[in-house]
Amino acid sequence: MPPLPRQSCAAGGIHAGWCKKMTRKIFIDALNEDLSREYQAIIAYVTYSQVLKGAAYMNIAAELTVHAKQELDHALQIANHVDYLGGMPSVTPKPVKTSEKAEDMLKFDLENERITIANYRRRVKQADELNEFAIAESLRGILVDEQDHLIALALPLVSIRRTRELPIRPVSDFS
Predict the structure, then answer these.
(1) Which residue, of 107, 153, 155, 172, has the greatest Cβ tally within 10 A?
(2) pLDDT per residue over 84-112, tens digit each?
(3) What one-character DSSP code corresponds to residue 174?
(4) Comparing C-alpha atoms, which of 73, 72, 84 is closest to residue 130?
């Protein structure tokens, strides 16, 4: 496979792990991408937790409120790491997708969590490569939270799909 352009690596995106040599600058840029994604998650979780309606979504809406607080903690940790490394923490969130459909919002969150997990897995390796072991440990803790978020979002979606697949019997069948 041909080497990717340096720009791809500096952006901290999906191909960032393929860079030949990790530098502090590349790592700071990648962490700032992660920080922008944390801001995105905060906004999404705050919004979705308030607009999800119906009995099927009551528990997940409460869970999203908890997730929003955890994402704020992640953002503070990442901003601290960027500052420690000599960078300026990002102030711009990634765009937040919205929908009139609750299930779509959960799917958006699920996909964002998948991307975030993949990025943090790379970031742990990059921190280790730079001998920034304390940052790597901090990122591992964030990664555990993000994986918990993924599971918490996936379970309601599976449950909703199963409910739709069940045949609905008329009330007269129960008499």
Answers:
(1) 153
(2) 999 999 999 999 999 999 999 999 999 99
(3) G
(4) 84
